[in-house]
Amino acid sequence: MKCDDIKYNLLDYIKGKVSNDEHKHMEEHISKCESCQREAEELLSFYELVKNEVIWRPEDTFWASLLPRIHHTLDNRKVQLFPQLILKYIMPISAAIVLVIFSINYFRLMLSSTSKEEITFSQLQPDELQYYIDQQSIVGEDVGILNTHYAKTPDDDVVIIEDILQSDKYSSINEIDYETIIESIDDQEINNLVSILENNIDNS
Amino acid sequence: MEEKLDSELIETFINGDVSGFNELVRRYQERIYWIARRTVGTHEDAADVVQDVFIRVYNGLKHFRGESNFYTWLYRIAVNVALNAIRRKRIKDFIPYDEFLEGMPSSESRADDPIQKQEFQTILEKAVQKLPTKQRMVFTMRYYEELPYEDIAKILKKSVGGTKANYFQALKKVSQYVKKEFNI
């Protein structure tokens, strides 16, 4: 055993806290080593002075009340936790969600207002209608094409929606409409249109 | 009745039964109190530290991985909370550390204090209070708690050799102080 091993465990040796084997080894070393002997004597005299000191201890009520006090504090903190959570997480998250929803709707509104504008045939004057029909392709949206139409300007900023066949106001220009419309629709839709036109002519 | 292991009590608590935590408090409250009291110096501050330690344990036990002994983990929390308490007290009172130690109430000064009149320090306790904080902790854990050096080193995140040397230095200082007080 080295002197360091002895001195670091010297107090345990004095207190009788080392194993029998260890005690024997330490005893042997100390009996032969003057330095360790001195250290042992020093520590022994110190330990003799303090070993019987009576320390002040808290009363039993302190120990008995400790656990309830801990739970009381934990319960109080749980109660306080909700307002803290509201302030720390729920309010900022809610504000962020509202902001995101607002931004999305705002941009959608901006896009719809800048890129296209819905106008029905009934809002147009006959010459305006003729202009649109001359200038733009009319795209059938439904299979029953003439029930709903979207007409886009070259700038793609106007969409016209109208139930043409049911519009009495523009019945006089229906033939022009139909010619233009026919150019931009497929065979199936042409057949539909032709039969509707025939019915119209028959009726008139 | 056979005493449950720490790990079993922890599992009980994690499974939602608070009795596991309560038993751990009862098992360790005194040891944590003494670490705290010998570190912060007074019963009042030590009582706050103990309470704070176990509240942290309650909140952190679900995350305890069991990689070290429970008591090593617990002592580490106690050491940190006690050190924080000392720092807070120093900041609050605006006193330098050395003066803080010098100014710790002694048995004589407490005699007139109605709250603390029953609390007094032995010569050994006074000597311990004179040690630098880390040495005081090493001394407390080794001298009073008789923890193995390896565990103290883990708790304080130091080397075992350094911990041994620290303890021996602390022991020498305490011994000198006590002898001086006894006029030896």
How would you portray this structure in words?
The complex is a heterodimer of chains A (204) and B (184). Chain A has helices spanning 3-8, 10-15, 20-32, 34-50, 60-115, 126-135, 174-183, 187-203, and strands spanning 117-120, 138-140, 149-152, 158-161. Chain A has a four-stranded mixed sheet. Chain A is built from eight helices and four strands. Chain A is an alpha+beta fold and 204 residues long. The N and C termini of chain A lie far apart (125 Å). In chain A, 66% of the residues lie in helices and 7% in strands. In chain A, strand 3 and strand 4 (158-161) form a beta hairpin. Chain B has 184 residues and is mainly alpha-helical. Chain B contains ten helices and no strands. The N and C termini of chain B lie far apart (50 Å). Chain A binds chain B through residues 4, 7-8, 11-12, 17, 42-43, 45-46, 49-50, 53-56, 58, 62-63, 66-67, 69-70, 73-74, 77, and chain B through 22, 25-26, 29-30, 33, 43, 47, 50-51, 54-55, 58, 118-125, 143, 146, 149, 164-165, 167-168, 171, 174-175, 178-179, 182, 184.
